[in-house]
Amino acid sequence: MIHVMPKHSSFPTNLLRTTLHRYFSQTLITLPSYSSSSHKPHPSSEIFKSGTQMGSYKLGDLSFYSLIESHASSLDFRSLEEVLHQMKRERRVFLEKNFIVMFKAYGKAHLPEKAVDLFHRMWGEFQCKQTVKSFNSVLNVIVQEGLFNRALEFYNHVVASKSLNIHPNALTFNLVIKAMCRLGLVDKAIEVFREIPLRNCAPDNYTYSTLMHGLCKEERIDEAVSLLDEMQVEGTFPNLVAFNVLISALCKKGDLGRAAKLVDNMFLKGCVPNEVTYNALVHGLCLKGKLEKAVSLLNQMVSNKCVPNDVTFGTLINGFVMQGRASDGTRVLVSLEARGHRGNEYVYSSLISGLCKEGKFNQAMELWKEMVGKGCGPNTIVYSALIDGLCREGKLDEARGFLSEMKNKGYLPNSFTYSSLMRGYFEAGDSHKAILVWKEMANNNCIHNEVCYSILINGLCKDGKFMEALMVWKQMLSRGIKLDVVAYSSMIHGFCNANLVEQGLKLFNQMLCQGPVVQPDVITYNILLNAFCIQKSIFRAIDILNIMLDQGCDPDFITCDIFLKTLRENMNPPQDGREFLDELVVRLVKRQRTIGASKIIEVMMHKFLLPKASTWAMVVQQVCKPKNVRKAISECWSRLSC
């Protein structure tokens, strides 16, 4: 303890200064030296230790607290333990706030169990009573580490402990709700949420936002939106985070109308949209193909002094690529760079991949050179996009060259890189080299995912190696790898080519039972339709066509050709197929599938099989509905631009 001299003391001031100076000089001289390889305690702790041993200085509690903060900030846990034990020996007073400092340090060092252990030692070893503050601090460390099950386990243990007698507060419930939502236990999170008022607490913006986010992840958006109304009724005004959670979810779902209403609501509540809001809206517009509106929104964003970030630009450019307008995406990049922004590797990879898929390989190579020239070093993603493009162009030797360059520069090829090369070799008719790439993947510890398996099965089936494909299929099943549409369709095709149509039909029925995850596409249906028509089983083919329509899959040009050929060659008397296609158009229009109906009419026009006047009237009436006019015009323009 430091004693303060009486106000009117006659003790000479200079003598006091001299004595203190002499004491600290001696203490510093007698400090032991440490080598750089040994553990170095904090210098200040050594000074205090020396003074205490000499008996000339008694260390105060505040000095210990300062040491705890210092060691915790440097994550020196060994020294922290030494300080705690010294305080314990000297019967010092432990404060909860010092333990909270240490809990945060354990969190920073990703040592949540150390924090839990120290929490349980607080009372028994250091005589410091735990309260909800220290409890929340440890709970937060566990949640931040992503150990959500462990967080709930710790919460239940502490709350159930009568000896601890800790009552959760609003922050505790927020952390518990977050953990439950991350684990997908949204209904349990709602139960906890409803208990909050019963515990004399009130949910805050964070509580509502966390629960909304959990509901949106489970696609329970209506419930999340109703929570927004509820929080306002309860007197909690939603903040920017709450609005952004809902706007983002609605935009991903494609419900731009409700998202726009929420933006209006934001303004009414005094919340100004930020880059997260705009990014969500741009993403939603791009998903809907409303690219011009997305560009307009970007300009509005700039005019509102909200700076677009890499996510904004990447989303917009990727939107153009997804719509088959990679060249327009390139123009957007040029415009952005003119304003001082730089494209990153994700933007370049999206554009290069898009240009290659559109058959504009020369533009893709120019963009590659431009990217390298601007100092944006290619990474695994960009290399993979270019290799995929070269494989699509059939330039497999060049693709191999870039793969070698990629490895030499330290970028590891991924499953997409190898699968592109495999597909390229199969399409070139060189199945041997494709299988060598498969083996190369295994040698380089690159995991064979469902895409790689699908490409291998598809390639083997097309190459007439059905038994080998069947072996790969069984291996895929034994390893629990998810089966995708390509794998199923390839095996169905293999069975049909081997004249085992019934086996292929069994796989098709399996697909139908998978739910929305793996549903047959038009290619799958065409494989079965063709197989039954070859067998002259026209009625079974029509059954498959009915399933196709019921499942929401529209026929394409190949579907029409399969039936036209069968009606012409296998019917007695032969039919030109006009009535069949006309009926198909009517059925699609009645289901409001105008695009599918338009494709069938296009086939009929090419084949000089004019639809009936009544069918024309139905199609025109459907297309010319106000909400469909703009969509129809967009379709026409996109076809003309091709």
From TrEMBL:
UniProt similarity note: Belongs to the PPR family. P subfamily.
Domain of life: Eukaryota
Keywords: Repeat
The name this protein goes by in its record: Pentacotripeptide-repeat region of PRORP domain-containing protein
UniProt keyword Repeat, yes or no: yes
PANTHER family, A to Z: OS03G0856100 PROTEIN, TETRATRICOPEPTIDE-LIKE HELICAL DOMAIN SUPERFAMILY
InterPro entries (alphabetical): PPR_rpt, TPR-like_helical_dom_sf
Keyword set includes Amino-acid biosynthesis: no
PPR repeat positions: 169-203, 204-238, 239-273, 274-308, 344-378, 379-413, 414-448, 449-483, 484-518, 521-555
SUPFAM superfamilies with a match to the protein in the record: HCP-like
